[in-house]
Design goal:
single chain; alpha+beta; Thiol Ester Dehydrase, Chain A; 2 domains; about 15% helix; about 35% strand
Length: about 260
Amino acid sequence: MSEVVKFTDMEAYCKATECGIGDKLYCSTLIGDLQEAAERSSYALGYGTDFLKDNEICWIILKMRLHFTELPSWHETFRIRTWANYLDKFYFGRDFEIYSSDNRLIGMATSVWILADWNTHRPVIANKRPELPPPLIQDPKLVFGEKCPKIRFPDRNEVAGESDKPVIIKYADFNELDRNRHVNNSRYTAWAYDALFKCGYDVTLIEDLVINYNSEVKAGEKVELFISEKDGKLTVFGYKNIDTKVFAVEITMRSV
């Protein structure tokens, strides 16, 4: 049996249309690049999206933490390194390192995924599906020394207060949808940035995000965003259908 490759590297080029203030890559685009690197790595391990779709299975990301000291710049070719690092029942762990064009470590991320039935999105246990190859762990290394944390997600009325007025409203329009006809998880980060920017926060100071994904958003649905500052934590919460919890993003900003 051949030795398991310890990691997968992917290069990404930073285009002008993917950059914002200061010619820096949008954080939401970077998260999309991390997901792309994860797919390529999963393909190398026998769990590529096309193979899974043929078996009516898909990957679903549940949580991610991303920390960066800087974002890639326009015209820069940067590198993402990723590896599968644990399997706990049906939870797959995957971590990342992000390197600049001059090979400096500028970011790290950890994430949790499940395999799910394509139609019902119920978890699939790989070891109980004979058509799937045995899951492989490439490297048990955890970039933060711990698994991705879970964010406390309060009910809408606890966050909204008496006014019940969202900071911003987003819709699952055509350009927000992915191949599965629902909003891609990377877009929730973009929405959180929009909410913070609208309220006067300097989003260029963000250096760490913890994102929990609770419910998918399908074509045409509306999501209302609220911002909470409590116990020293800045968090953006998204709800649909009044009180269905969609996503939460806990933000840390660097000191100036």
